[in-house]
Amino acid sequence: MRVAVFGDVHGNRFALEAVSADIERHRPDVWVNLGDQVHGGADPAGAWQVQQHLRARYGVLEVRGNTDERLGEPLTDTTRKRDMLTWLHGVLPPGAGAALARLPTALTLAGGEVLAAHGTPVSPWAALLRDETGWATDELVRNRLGTAGAAQVVIVGHSHLEHVRQIGAVTVVNAGAVSRQKDGCPQARWTLLERGRGAWSVTFRRVAYDVEAAAQWAAQQAPQGAREAARLRSGRGES
Questions:
Q1: What sign has the CA pseudo-torsion 28, 31, 32, 37?
Q2: Could you give the 3-state DSSP secondary structure of residue 208?
Q3: Which of 7, 103, 181, 238 has the most CB within a 10 Å radius?
């Protein structure tokens, strides 16, 4: 069994098109989207359309990211990142934000052997494998997993940093992000899980895409577009 896992698209159509083409070449049995689908500035409406196409064609399984959740909240005077959210609601189809906010926080597949979430199984806002600026201890990860540790593989996003660790009988994976990298390499990322002979293997994939085209789109059309463009070009910055 082959499971393609991608997430943290953050509204980057350019990166997502490259990732989806690479995934298609691997012919996975299951596709999983770890959330944070459109909160970003490199053609989020286009990124939404691509994800809807993939969902219709491949039955992509989806979980809710923290920015997906934010898109479902009412805008008030105290709403964080209100300018970006207002713009997103204007360029996305009606109801898109509400649909994203209704997605589950976690899901299981492969007969319960794999658990997928954005942050932790119970919260898209918390990082499973990160502790402030470093990697969390095994003990802390076990506590955050709770009963989800019954799965053989737990895969999450949110941190935008690739990582794999064996904690007892559980393989815990932080999938790479499609967009807004943090390690200085702007290439898009996704993760392939493969089951064979009773065991799961993990392969991190990196895909080149037209970063400059994405950056120019953001600079010309998105709120705080220059900042988004710099983040995409450098492969460093907040998510």
A1: positive
A2: coil
A3: 7
